[in-house]
Structure formats: structure tokens, C-alpha cells
Amino acid sequence: MSARGVFVTGTDTGIGKTYASCALLAALRARGLRAVGMKPVASGCRATSQGLRNEDTDALIAASDPAPAYADCNPFAFAEPIAPHIAARESAIEIRLDPIRSAYARLAVGVDRIVVEGVGGWMVPFSETLMQADLVRALDLPVILVVGLRLGCVNHALLSVRAIRDDGCTLASWIANRIDPTMACADANLATLRDRIGAPLLGVLDHAPGAASEYAADQLDMSAL
Description:
Elements: E1 5-10, H1 17-30, E2 35-38, E3 41-43, E4 46-48, E5 51-53, H2 55-62, H3 70-73, E6 76-78, H4 84-90, H5 97-108, E7 113-117, H6 132-139, E8 143-148, H7 153-166, E9 171-177, H8 186-197, E10 201-205, H9 213-217
Parallel strand pairs: 1-7, 1-8, 2-7, 3-6, 8-9, 9-10
Antiparallel strand pairs: 4-5
Helix pairs in contact: 1-2, 5-6, 7-8
């Protein structure tokens, strides 16, 4: 992990990036570090009296110490649960790097670590000209890949690893998440991933819907970072 932050991406949407990010935050706090989460772009937000709010972002804030301001944690929020570049276009908003960099700088004041959660998988675009890799390079963040253990995960994981490296970004480590408790040959698939990803495995998260981030944090080996 860099002096300030890490970027958490996944092999797909719905594979547990937020669960893993909250576990990382809990593990960092358990080591006595002041750690905050950030989700720069979120689609699928609910309307509140304070504006649009995203469930994943709320979870990151709850797992943070100190708790960040919502606007800094999630600079770009969209109501529709669709791809962010489409949601932004339909809202007549352009997702840009400068507001995200400014929010990141504010979050960095007085903290030791920032866990930045991406949206969807690695190749989901932010706009016609902006990719997630552009943000990762702009903030100089190493990447942690969350692999959802289910049928097809080897292909999804290895393609994601190749894309991350081809984009000139650093894959620091990865986390396996047992999202399908009935997956056939799960341990054999996990062994294949260990052999081929070429980065340290931080841990294998159990399938535990509703589990607290502290529970997942106990399954991470932070010394691998």
C-alpha cells in the first residue's frame, strides 16, 4: 500500500468490492491507523433531504475513522443503477478528475490511509474519454483486485490482471470473496488463481451476508501488503 491510498477494483459488479473495502478499513483501524473510505463515482443512489446517497458509500463512511463528509467520499452520485458514464450523460454531468482529486486531497488531511473503491469492473468507463485507470494513475494508487469466486472467475480475474498491468498500473495484491458458497471445485480454482495472478493474496473472505467488516478484516493478512 502506498503512503496514502489504495484503489479497490473487482472482476465484475456485485462481487464484494464494498465488503472487501470495509474489511480493509477495519483491518487498518485495528492496526491503529486513521483510515477513510472513498467511492468517487456511484450510480444507484437514493434521494434524501441532503441529496443523493449511495448505500456502498454509506458503508464506507461507517467503516471509516474519522468519518468523511459525504460529498468528499462520493463526489459524483447518480440516481439510476446503470453504468456511470451513461448515468452521467443522462444527467448532463461530466465525470472529471479535478473534483475527485480535490476531494481526495481533503480526505488525506489528518489520516494515514485512504481506501478508494472503484465502480463495477476495471474497464467500466467514467466518460467518453475517461477510464478508471486514468484516475488510478492521477492519484498514483496501487490496485487491489477483488475476485468473486464463482464459475468463470479464473477468466475474469486473469483478464482483469492483464488489463490493470497493460494500463500501466500496479497490482499490489488481491482478495478472494466466496460469493457463491455452492461453487464446484472452489479450492481448485483458488489454487489456479494463486499460481497465475502473480501478486500476494491478502485473504479469502467467507460467504457471510450481513457480516460486520471486523469479521472480514480478521480474514485478511495485512502483512502481505
